[in-house]
Specification:
Blueprint lengths: L32 E6 L2 E2 L3 E2 L5 H13 L2 E6 L6 H4 L8 E6 L6 E2 L4 E4 L1 E5 L20 E4 L3 H8 L6 E4 L10 H10 L5 E4 L1 H10 L4 E5 L10 E8 L4 H13 L1 H10 L23
Parallel strand pairs: 1-4, 1-5, 9-10, 9-11
Antiparallel strand pairs: 2-3, 5-13, 6-13, 7-13, 8-11, 8-12
Helix pairs in contact: 1-7
């Protein structure tokens, strides 16, 4: 649910609007096109229509590299890296959690944290942490097999949890949206999601939902993750090129992330300030 696994330069060409079966294995890995493998229906990260924040980040990178942008679309799931990046159908996977040994990671370009959503009209508007005793009588939505589950079980809240699927084809199912819908309908008292999903959900329901980034929880398992570009191992020069582009455009990247409601953490674990309320939202 980290949105691999997930800023505005509209002049960049998004080259793959064709069905998956029309895509093919290229003869060469080129450097005049930024080729990105991504999920076609994974809002707020990526969509085929280019509406996600990772679409915008990819466009910024292409702009910095002075190349066009092309996508190879595939729903995320088991075998995603093997069947995309490893097959040289693309040169980066946009939005990959740091620390994986499957890919080489670029420098991180943002850090976020699992975040709780609560009703703006409920009794949890001042919630700070999961050890709050009020949660013992609350219905808590979680994504199965994600780190918040371990924290809640350690706090004795296992029976309070309603679990939603982790691995789904987002073209047909959206566990995050389902959880938020249950929260809005009163079937849950609190929903815990990966920060970008929770932040975007709160932005879509301003005045109704409040987001609570879980920055004060126990360190293990971590609820905060650094997000990178996923690259093929041993492509050292390509990594250096991308790291330079990320560094040069970090301010632009942060602006887009914040405009989508993503809770951003600095290196010390503090929340980065969001745009003023008058700023444009996607």
């Amino acid at each position: 649910m980290l949105g691999y696994a997930g800023l505005v330069a509209s002049a960049i060409v998004i080259g793959s609007h064709h069905p998956a079966q029309a895509q093919h294995l290229p003869d060469l890995v080129t450097r005049d096109v930024l080729r990105v493998c991504a999920d076609p229906a994974n809002m707020p990260f990526t969509t085929r229509e280019g509406k996600g924040f990772e679409n915008q980040i990819a466009a910024i990178l292409a702009d910095e590299l002075k190349v066009s942008l092309r996508y190879y679309w595939m729903p995320q799931g088991p075998g995603f890296v093997r069947n995309t990046l490893s097959m040289k159908l693309c040169d980066i996977i946009i939005g990959y959690a740091a620390g994986s040994d499957i890919v080489q990671s670029s420098n991180p370009y943002y850090r976020s944290v699992y975040t709780a959503l609560v009703s703006a009209r409920g009794e949890l508007t001042d919630l700070k942490h999961l050890a709050d005793p009020r949660l013992r009588s609350m219905r808590i939505g979680v994504i199965a097999a994600t780190p918040p589950v371990d924290h809640l079980e350690a706090l004795g809240l296992g029976l309070n949890m309603k679990s939603y699927s982790l691995l789904v084809d987002r073209r047909f199912e959206s566990p995050g949206d389902e959880m938020i819908a249950d929260l809005l309908a009163g079937r849950l008292d609190i929903a815990i999601l990966w920060g970008p999903i929770a932040g975007y959900g709160a932005m879509q329901h301003q005045g109704t939902l409040i987001k609570v980034p879980l920055i004060d929880e126990a360190e293990r398992p971590s609820l905060a993750y650094r997000i990178t570009l996923g690259l093929r191992p041993n492509e050292i020069e390509w990594k250096r090129t991308l790291n330079a582009a990320l560094h040069n455009r970090q301010a632009d990247i942060n602006r887009v992330l914040l405009s989508y409601g993503v809770p951003l953490l600095d290196d010390d674990g503090h929340l980065i300030e969001e745009p003023a309320s008058g700023d444009t939202k996607p």
